[in-house]
Amino acid sequence: MLIVGGGFSGLLIASFLGDGVVVFEEHGRVGRPEHCAGIISSRTARLLRLPKFLVEETFNEMKIFTGSGALVWRGNPLAVKVDRVGLEQHLYHESLSAGAEVKLNFKVTHVSDRGFLIAGGEKFNGEVIVLAEGASRLHSRNLNLISQSDDYYGLQAKIKGVVDCDCIEVYLNKFADGFFSWFIPLKDKREAIIGLASKSSAKLQRRLLAFQKMLEIQGKLRKSKLKYFFGGTIIRGVAGKIALGRIVGIGDCIQMTKPLSGGGLYPITIAAKLMADKLNKLLNSELDWKRAVGEYCTSVKPLINGLRVAYIAFRVLGAHDYLPVKIMAKGAERLKFQDKVMREFDYDNHISSLVQLLLNPSKALKFAGIFTAGLL
Fold it and tell me: Using CA atoms, how far apart are residues 303 and 305, in angstroms rounded to an integer?
């Protein structure tokens, strides 16, 4: 079994499969460069059996500021801040302990749907190749696993200073066109992460510094100093093909991300568990490669279809500058329901939550009332 990519997706699969797996990673160490804020739901943390030492912060609340009002999203907990670099290093050691081989500094230059790849000038054969190359999507594009993309440029900064905030804050403001800005307090109010994303990379650093200044004016940051910038491509979809011949894709390389935020850890974790179930049967000679790939595609299809539907929904929202969300926030503020709107939404399955809400007459009527109040 061959895995292309030693990031979160590839290492998670390798940790599930163990013996008989070879992972090819082009960098000399895993987890670098840093690019992700590391906010995941408590559900994803449980699915990953996340060790406590990787949890940096726990949040029970998120505030969403729209300019016309605010929405409050609560959970117990709602989300956790995970050490993303540490998570990949943890999965690396878990993979080795399970018996997988991880080849660092091995750049894969060619992947064939017939079950072989070229890396470091050598040819390697496998019954199935798991493509987990990440956001570069070089091989997934060459193999036509993805036909279109909707990428954003994301930039974040680690800030040191006095932080007067207890929850995650999200802003639908001018600093992030078609996306949002975020403010994440850390480490007993002595550090924070600020970030934003936009379709255009022009003046992204300047806009992030302006966002920092706005937070200072609001009194949420004081005596703040920039420690360092980090970031990268944020993929919002649309989810691509699941498989081709002996290749199965997972993670960013086939745009397996939540369209609202670009976060991938939840769908990847679900897909990895489904994939590992079938590929373990292949390794144990219970299935041949065709049945293993076919059964994985069938089991993961509802997840992929859900991501595709969500992508369409959020493209519509973004195209209208999140107007429906802003109307809901305005109505909720007028009716003093700021903390009731988001109560109905699951952190990981936004569209499923919306469908269930609309199918419930009493809840749908309540939301119609809030929306109407926002229009007045």
Answer: 6
Q: Which residue has the higher pLDDT, 320 or 264?
A: 264
Q: In which band, very low, low, confident or very high, does the pLDDT at 89 lie, cut at 50, 70 and 90?
A: very high
Query: Who has greater pLDDT, 346 or 90?
Result: 90
Confidence of residue 251 (pLDDT cuts 50, 70, 90): very high
Parallel, antiparallel or unpaired: strands 191-198 and 151-163: antiparallel
Q: How far apart are CA 85 and CA 35, in angstroms?
A: 9
What's CA 32's distance to the chain center, in Å?
17
Cα 93 to Cα 11, 47, 100: the distances in Å are 9, 18, 10
Mean pLDDT of the 270-283 span: 96
Q: What is the pTM of this model?
A: 0.91
Inter-axis angle of helices 361-375 and 323-334, nearest 10: 90
Q: Residues with Cβ < 8 Å from 325, sequence gap 6 or more? A: 64, 66, 71, 172, 317
CB 183 within 8 A of CB 157: no
Q: How many residues does the chain have?
A: 376
Q: What is the mean pLDDT of the chain?
A: 91
Residue 227, amino acid? K
Find the DSSP H helices in the chain: 8-17, 42-47, 84-98, 138-142, 204-217, 265-283, 289-319, 323-334, 350-358, 361-375
Helix and strand numbers (H, E) in the chain are 10, 17
DSSP-based helix, strand, coil % in the chain, nearest 5: 40, 25, 35
Q: Is 336 exposed, middle or buried (0-12, 13-18, 19+ CB in 10 A)?
A: exposed
DSSP string across 12-74: HHHHHH-TT-EEE-SSSSSS-S-----EEEHHHHHHTT--GGGEEEEEEEEEEE-SS-EEEEE
Taking 80 as the threshold, does the pLDDT of residue 125 lie above it? yes
Percent of the chain with pLDDT over 70: 100
Give me the residues paired with residue 248 across strands. 130, 243
